[in-house]
Design a protein that fits this description.
Mean pLDDT: 77
Shape: elongated
Number of strands: 11
Low-confidence stretches: none
Largest sheet: 4 strands, antiparallel
Radius of gyration: 20 Å
Strand order of the largest sheet: 2-3-7-8
Length: 117
């Protein structure tokens, strides 16, 4: 029994993450969309899509969508760690044409309490 468990652990450690089906290639006629997150330090910033397939969503890892015209709803959240009254949020809606075979990330720039994407 002990010999079997040791063999299983050895095999799993050698294969590592190769067991998981991570896809890095962008599908044909699709683009990759990545949210922005900075959660290191005292100032926290999150810029992310609010909707996917006409349904509300929260934070998500990078996803692929069909290229073309899109109407995006984006949420921007900023706050300082341990200071509840520092929480600020903005919602932005814009139309954009996103091309296939590219990766996009929401840009962020905050000037005098206004978020620019």
């Amino acid at each position: 029994m002990f010999k079997f468990n040791l063999s299983l652990i050895l095999i799993l450690s050698l294969t590592g993450c190769s067991l998981f089906p991570f896809e890095t290639a962008i599908k044909e006629n699709h683009f990759r969309f990545e949210n922005f997150k900075r959660d290191v330090g005292d100032d926290l910033e999150f810029v992310y899509l609010m909707c996917s397939h006409k349904k509300p969503i929260g934070w998500e890892q990078p996803k692929q969508y069909e290229s073309g015209e899109h109407n995006l709803w984006v949420m921007v959240e900023t706050y300082q760690r341990d200071i509840p009254i520092s929480y600020k949020v903005a919602v932005v809606n814009f139309d954009v044409n996103l091309q296939a075979d590219k990766s996009y990330m929401l840009n962020r720039k905050i000037v005098k309490r206004k978020a620019f994407l």
